[in-house]
Structures are given as structure tokens and as C-alpha cells.
């Protein structure tokens, strides 16, 4: 017989929580989204025998244990962890939900068995008591009606025996339940639960659906267009939800939120069936976006734990436009590797490398990981910050003991210490790798698993003397609309009706002021953070108009390339704003490469004579300086000698990029006390406004040369003055 209508709807909503995961388990036998949804609908009104067996094993390990003198219902030995085998992820979810419900109402179910005199029973051994309790909960959930059984189902003798036993006493069991509700003045068994548990379940059921866009399959623009065609309207925030609405996330540009009431309809849509939209808690999207903001164009990522394959796929999608790879540790078996490959292939992921070793077993000098720049560490944690414990256990491979911890409202000290010790070990091992940063994320509400682990790792000094120390840096998200939330070194979200709770910390290596950072890396990081706008593009266009780069054949760098020389394209005087922009960029690049550039690497030559500004006080007699042949010969010999010395002192340099500010200053004679520059202007044939010729300036080559040049300039001025007086 089918279930009652109200219970069928409730169970239907629970089953749809992970319909996407069900479809993933059958990736190798994909037959279309319509058939998948049909298979899901068939299994909603019935629990197979294997589900009862697995649920009983789970309940046996997490049940509340009483002292022997107060134990009226006896269970079998649970010293050995039972082996669980699931047909698919749908069966896995239903098994955990059934075990969790039996745990929540354990006191009620045991009271019903005792009050109805159904227990104890000599025909049922203690080893089957867990199965008896689990099947009793499902029987009362069906309003004590018979279970529908399909012919293709493989029967299990123990299940059929317990089922027949309970159904024969269904009237006594129903009467005992009614007496218990009257005694506790409860309208339904849900009111028997503690207030904290009821609020937690209500909060989890009302939590907005968080999905991320799989850019391997589609784009944000295409998804928005599809949603608009389906009648959805975009709103500003979650508080503005009104049925067919959605909103963009404020931290992650590829994350959308939908009302919880649309879960079934969305999961049955083509967007989810084709893996264009993927349902996952926002905390994992925050973690992968934090990694993305720290990477350049070609840096690899190390994911320390398999965890949720959705987290790995999201990281892969964000790195789709780069040459980087995502290394996943702890796959352990070839069967698991094949399963993951099928899932990733179905989602379109192509840049994922699977490693069989656990993260702590991999050496920091492993040649496979030498290009890794960031490590994503999401360790096993208590998980009390997660809104739905079943989702956490299934997606993150969490411990079933979380169900018991959630009912108790806390985690035991021994368990918390074990978790914190393991987390500290993994974080310290990650710090031994030659990576730039580590992203640490948990779903815990305890400082022992969050701040204290990070602080202890930083204080340990495990990096050694050869590597730079790590330090805390505040997380930065590309589209964060609230910058104040990113000012703290730790990022937190509290468990609420809007989101699950999570903790996020980023530690990065200290950078030397002389560290050589390429312009491409700077632009890549700025682009990943959304900092490049129209201003940068306009500045780049103006620079292209004002500057022209050409190659010259003088000298070859260490890499075999010829150094480049910059030439003036025209001599238009730039505006003050452009000058300030160019000068600031030049200063920034100079600071980054101050120690690497110690010799002149380029020469700038004007294509036309540069005329100095009028009224500079230059002597009028220089107009006839070209008529002094003796002085010109001396000057020519000095120039040849200096060029010969410069050729001998030439050093093969590596090609670097230098941005010159478009500033044309008037000619000034070099003085002995002026500092030497890494690049200079070689002006020849310049004339003033009044058509007065200027002698070519002499290159700077030491204090002695500058003194000689000054003396020659003084002599030229004196001879010119005398010649002018004679002419007049």
C-alpha cells in the first residue's frame, strides 16, 4: 500500500535533496535525463530490503548507549565497524536518513516496543534489535500500512522476518504510540524532539538553494537567458525572493541562489540534468574562488583531499582558461579513480590529475607538483556548521557520528582533539611545499579546528630556513560588495536561515621587495580580482599611441633574443594625468626589479630634433657653434673613445620590460654631482625655438668623464662668446 499523502510529500522533498548525486552514480550508463527522473520517482514510495540492512548498521554505530543497569532494550555487539554496500547514492541517502530518524526518536521507539509488550521476544536476537527499531520507525511513518514490494527486488530473510513480526502487532504498536503522544501532549512525533533540533531542521529546509555555473557546459549569459525564458526574474538579494526568482551571489561571480521551494522543479530541469547548474553549499565555492584569486595564468593547484567531487569540478572550471592543472590527492584505488574520471568527463573537466597517495604521504619535492602555487586544504572536521548533516556526510565523506553530535549539540573533547591534531598535521605538511599560498577551509564552529590550528601552524616554523615564512592574509573575493567583510584575516559565515557556517583562512609566503614579478602575473592577478577596468585600457591605448618599440641589432641577451629599444612615435606633450599614470607605473616596475636591472638596457632616440622650450636662458652665441672645426674634431675623437670603452664594458643582459614616462625635458648640461641613470636620452641635432644649434650632449661615464665634459662645455662657451664679439 502507498504511504499517506502528507508523508509522501515530505519524503518526496527529502529524496530530491540529492537527485543530482543519484544521476552521477549512473554516469557510465547515461540514458537521458527523463529516464533518470523516472527511476527516481519509482523509488520514492518504497524502501528496499538492502536499505533497511544498511540503515540498521549505521544506527548500530551511532545509537545512544545507556548504562547496563538502565538498559531495557539490548543491542548486539558494535565493537566492529560494519561494512556498508550501497546500490547507488539514492539508496545511500535513504539509508542515512532512516538511521538518523531512528536515532532522533530512539527513546520513543524503545518505549513503544516495551509498552506494547512486543519486546522482548525470544525469536529476535539482540543482533537484530537495530533492524527492529529502524523498521518500526518506517512502519509508523507509513501509518502502520503494509510496504509495497516489487518483484525484481532481491529479498533479505532477516528483513522479511522482522517486517512480518511488526506488521502482526501493528494495532498494539499504534496504541502504544497514541498513549505516548497523549502523555507528552504532542500533536505529532516531531513535537517530541528538543527545540534546538526542530529549529535546526526548519532552518535547513528553508535554506536557499546555492548553485554554481559549470562553464565547461555553458556560460553565465546563457544561463540567465534560459532562466528568463523559463519565467524567472533576477532580484537583488535573497530577502527579495518571490517564487520564480533568483539572485547573484555577492562574493562569487558564478554562483546563483534560488528559493528552497523550487528545489524539486530545478533538480528536474534540463539545466541540472545536463550538469550546467550544480547544487553545492556556498562554503566550498568561497574556498575555490579564494584559490583562484591567488593564482597566475599557469600555476597548478593541489587539492589535499578528494572530499566532494563537486568542489574539484568547480576548481577545474575556474582554471579552464589557463594552462594550470588541478592535482587531487588521496584517490587510493583504481575503482575510485575510474568513478571520478567518469564523473569529471560527464561534467566536461579536462585539467584534473588524480593521485593515489594521501596528501601527507606525498613529498614536498615531488616532481609532479613543482609548478604548484596554491594548496586547497579542506580537512575532515566536526561539520556542525553545515546546515544539512546528511548532505555533509554524503558529499564530504563525513563521519556518521556527526548525526549523534548534532543531536547532542556538541562534539566530545576526545573527538575534537583528534580532529584538531590531524588538521594541524596536514596544514604543517602543506607549509613544507614550495607554494605561494594555502587556503584552509572547514565547516566547524569550534576555534580548536579553526583559528587555533592556523596560529599553531604559523608558530611552528615548519618551513625551515630555506623557505620564506608564511603569514596570514585577508581573503579577497572578486565581486565582494561588502569590503569590510574581507578586512579581517579570517572569513566566517554563521549558521543561519541564509547560509551554512564556514571558516576560511589564507596564509601566504612573505614576499621580498626585490622579488621579480612579471607584468603578466600582475595583470593576471588583477584580472582574477576584477580590478582591471576601462581606466587601465585607456592608459594602455594612450601608451601604444605615444610609444613605439623596435628591435636593434646591437647585442644579444642571455636567452638569445635581441634587446629592444624604445623610440618616440611623436613628440606631443602628454597631459599631467597621463604623466602621473606613467610615472607611477614606472616606479612600480622599477621597485620590483631594482636589484635585477643594474645596467642601461635600452636607449631612447627621438625621431626628430627636440626643441627646448623658449626662454630657457641658453646663450644666443651657440647658433654659430657649427663653424668651429677644431672643436668639432676634438668632440668627435672623444665620442669615438667613449664608444670604444662602452663596447668593452658591455654586459649580456636578460630582456626586461621597462615603461618610460612620456616626458620630454629641456636640455640640461650634465653636472659632476648628478646621479647616474639606468637609461638616458641620446639627443642629436636639437635646435631651440630661435633656431640656435646645440652641441650633442656627452654620455655619462664616471666622475672623471663628467668633469672633462664640463670643462669642454665651458671652453666652447668662451670661444663662442669671443667669436660673436668679433663678428659684431
Automatic annotation (TrEMBL):
Q: Which InterPro entries match?
A: MeTrfase_RsmB-F_NOP2_dom, NSUN5_7_fdxn-like, NSUN7, SAM-dependent_MTases_sf
Gene3D superfamilies assigned to the protein according to its UniProt record, in alphabetical order: Sun protein, domain 3 (3.30.70.1170), Vaccinia Virus protein VP39 (3.40.50.150)
Biological process (GO) annotations? methylation
**Residues engaged in binding S-adenosyl-L-methionine:** 358
Q: Name one GO molecular function term.
A: RNA binding
Q: Which UniProt keywords apply?
A: Methyltransferase, RNA-binding, S-adenosyl-L-methionine, Transferase
Q: Name one Pfam family in it.
A: NSUN5_fdxn-like
Indicate whether Kinase appears among the record's keywords: no
Q: Which family does it belong to?
A: Belongs to the class I-like SAM-binding methyltransferase superfamily. RsmB/NOP family.
The protein's matches in PANTHER family, at most eight in alphabetical order, are given as: METHYLTRANSFERASE NSUN7-RELATED
Which protein, by its recorded name, is this? NOP2/Sun RNA methyltransferase family member 7
Q: Which classification does the entry list for the species?
A: Eukaryota, Metazoa, Chordata, Craniata, Vertebrata
Amino acid at each position: 500500500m502507498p504511504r499517506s499523502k502528507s508523508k509522501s510529500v515530505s519524503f518526496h522533498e527529502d529524496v530530491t535533496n540529492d537527485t543530482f548525486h543519484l544521476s552521477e552514480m549512473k554516469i557510465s550508463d547515461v540514458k537521458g535525463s527523463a529516464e533518470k527522473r523516472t527511476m527516481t520517482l519509482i523509488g520514492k514510495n518504497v524502501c528496499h530490503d538492502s536499505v533497511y540492512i544498511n540503515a540498521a548498521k549505521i544506527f548500530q554505530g551511532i545509537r545512544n548507549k545507556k548504562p547496563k543497569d538502565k538498559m531495557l532494550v539490548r543491542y548486539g555487539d558494535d565493537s566492529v565497524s560494519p561494512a556498508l554496500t550501497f546500490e547507488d547514492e539514492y539508496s545511500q541517502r535513504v539509508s542515512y536518513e532512516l538511521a538518523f530518524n531512528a536515532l532522533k526518536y530512539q527513546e520513543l521507539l524503545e518505549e513503544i516496543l516495551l509498552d506494547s509488550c512486543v519486546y522482548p521476544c525470544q525469536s529476535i536476537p539482540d543482533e537484530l534489535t537495530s533492524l527492529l527499531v529502524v523498521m518500526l520507525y518506517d512502519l509508523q511513518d507509513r501509518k502502520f500500512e503494509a510496504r509495497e514490494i516489487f518483484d525484481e527486488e532481491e529479498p533479505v530473510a532477516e528483513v522479511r522476518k522482522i517486517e512480518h513480526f511488526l506488521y502482526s502487532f501493528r494495532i498494539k504498536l499504534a496504541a502504544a504510540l497514541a498513549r505516548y503522544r497523549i502523555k507528552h501532549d504532542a500533536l505529532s512525533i516531531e513535537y517530541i524532539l528538543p527545540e534546538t533540533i526542530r529549529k535546526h531542521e526548519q532552518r535547513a529546509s528553508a535554506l536557499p538553494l546555492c548553485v554554481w555555473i559549470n562553464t565547461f557546459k555553458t556560460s553565465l549569459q546563457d544561463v540567465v537567458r534560459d532562466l528568463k525564458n523559463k519565467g524567472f526574474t533576477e532580484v537583488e538579494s535573497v530577502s527579495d525572493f518571490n517564487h520564480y526568482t533568483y539572485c547573484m551571489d555577492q562574493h562569487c561571480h558564478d554562483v546563483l541562489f534560488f528559493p528552497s521551494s523550487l528545489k524539486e522543479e530545478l533538480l528536474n530541469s534540463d539545466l541540472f540534468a545536463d550538469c550546467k547548474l550544480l547544487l553545492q553549499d556556498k562554503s566550498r565555492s568561497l574556498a575555490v574562488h579564494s584559490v583562484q584569486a591567488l593564482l597566475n595564468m599557469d600555476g597548478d593547484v593541489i587539492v589535499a583531499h578528494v572530499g566532494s567531487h563537486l568542489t574539484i569540478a568547480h576548481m577545474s572550471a575556474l582554471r579552464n582558461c589557463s594552462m594550470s592543472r588541478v592535482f587531487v590527492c588521496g584517490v587510493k584505488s583504481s575503482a575510485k579513480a575510474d568513478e571520478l574520471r567518469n564523473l569529471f568527463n560527464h561534467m566536461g573537466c579536462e585539467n584534473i590529475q588524480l593521485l593515489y597517495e594521501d596528501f601527507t604521504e606525498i613529498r614536498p619535492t615531488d616532481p609532479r607538483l613543482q609548478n604548484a602555487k596554491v594548496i586547497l586544504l579542506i580537512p575532515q572536521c566536526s561539520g556542525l556548521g553545515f546546515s544539512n548533516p546528511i548532505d555533509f556526510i554524503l558529499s564530504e565523506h563525513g563521519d556518521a557520528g556527526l548525526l549523534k553530535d548534532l543531536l547532542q549539540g556538541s562534539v566530545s573533547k576526545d573527538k575534537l582533539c583528534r580532529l584538531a591534531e590531524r588538521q594541524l598535521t596536514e596544514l604543517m605538511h602543506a607549509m613544507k611545499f614550495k607554494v605561494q599560498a594555502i587556503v584552509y577551509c572547514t565547516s566547524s564552529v569550534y576555534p580548536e579546528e579553526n583559528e587555533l590550528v592556523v596560529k599553531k601552524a604559523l608558530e611552528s616554523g615548519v618551513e625551515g630556513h630555506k623557505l620564506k615564512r608564511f603569514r596570514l592574509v585577508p581573503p579577497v573575493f572578486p565581486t565582494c560588495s561588502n569590503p569590510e567583510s574581507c578586512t579581517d584575516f579570517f572569513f566566517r559565515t554563521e549558521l543561519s536561515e541564509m547560509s551554512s557556517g564556514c571558516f576560511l583562512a589564507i596564509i601566504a609566503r612573505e614576499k621580498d621587495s626585490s622579488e621579480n614579478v612579471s607584468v603578466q602575473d600582475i595583470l593576471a592577478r588583477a584580472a582574477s580580482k576584477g580590478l582591471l577596468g576601462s581606466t587601465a585600457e585607456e592608459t594602455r591605448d594612450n601608451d601604444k599611441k605615444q610609444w613605439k618599440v623596435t628591435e636593434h641589432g646591437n647585442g644579444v641577451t642571455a636567452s638569445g633574443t635581441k634587446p629592444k629599444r624604445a623610440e618616440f612615435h611623436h613628440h606631443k606633450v602628454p597631459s599631467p594625468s597621463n604623466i602621473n599614470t606613467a610615472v607611477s607605473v614606472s616606479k612600480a616596475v622599477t621597485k620590483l626589479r631594482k636589484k635585477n636591472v643594474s645596467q642601461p638596457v635600452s636607449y631612447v632616440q627621438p625621431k626628430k630634433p627636440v626643441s627646448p622650450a623658449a626662454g630657457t636662458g641658453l646663450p644666443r652665441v651657440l647658433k654659430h657653434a657649427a663653424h668651429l672645426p677644431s672643436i668639432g674634431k676634438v668632440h668627435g675623437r672623444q665620442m669615438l673613445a667613449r664608444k670604444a670603452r662602452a663596447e668593452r664594458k658591455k654586459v649580456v643582459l636578460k630582456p626586461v620590460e621597462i615603461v618610460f614616462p612620456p616626458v620630454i625635458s629641456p636640455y640640461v648640461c650634465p653636472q659632476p654631482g648628478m646621479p647616474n641613470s639606468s637609461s638616458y636620452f641620446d639627443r642629436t641635432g636639437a635646435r631651440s625655438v630661435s633656431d640656435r644649434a646645440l652641441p650633442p650632449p656627452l654620455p655619462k661615464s664616471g666622475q672623471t668623464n663628467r668633469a672633462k665634459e664640463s670643462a669642454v662645455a665651458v671652453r666652447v662657451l668662451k670661444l663662442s662668446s669671443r667669436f660673436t664679439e668679433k663678428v659684431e
